[in-house]
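Proteins fold reproducibly. Consider a sample protein:
=====
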Amino acid sequence: MPRVDGMHVLPRCSSAIIPDAARRILFVTGDVAGTDAEQFLEETGCRWLAKPFRLRDLLRTAQEILRLKPRL
């Protein structure tokens, strides 16, 4: 994303209105090894796919995210 990264987007997606929204975000990244992004993804437990990825992997991961039970 130009000028914005996932580390800045995620906190804005977590809100009192939709507290579960952050669990339904799938990050796509080119390289995370040894970066702040790697640490961020590990700490938050967010789902992510490394580029390049196969369409079947994207579809499988999206289906898994959509099946998540809401937290109450």
Notes: The radius of gyration is 13 Å. Residues 6-66 form one domain. Residues 55-66 form the longest helix (12 residues).
